[in-house]
Amino acid sequence: MYTNHRNTHLMETVTLTKLYEVLAQKIGRSEAECLTHYVDVKVKTELCNKLEILATKEDIHALRNEMKDNIISMQKWMLGTFITLVVMILGLYAAILLKP
What we know:
Shape: rod-shaped
Distance between the termini: 80 Å
Helix content: over 70%
Structural class: mainly alpha
Largest sheet: none
Number of strands: 0
Oligomer: single chain
Order of helices and strands: HHH
Number of domains: 2
């Protein structure tokens, strides 16, 4: 994973360098340097902002465990409700059949 980050950074540097060269020919070196610096800072800031809201593997693992616990809890409640309903229905049948 580290090599991918390094390659991405290298690709960013090459892209910014090309941008600088093109802008330097069009608007001058100091303006091109300021603009490429601004673009670099803006991209890094946006990337950091996006990374803060992304879920990590630990977040996903914790969410899966929480969902698993909730599913088990719901299954227990459904089973308890089903058993209660069966007992109620059997009680009603018994009341009807044992009625004098």
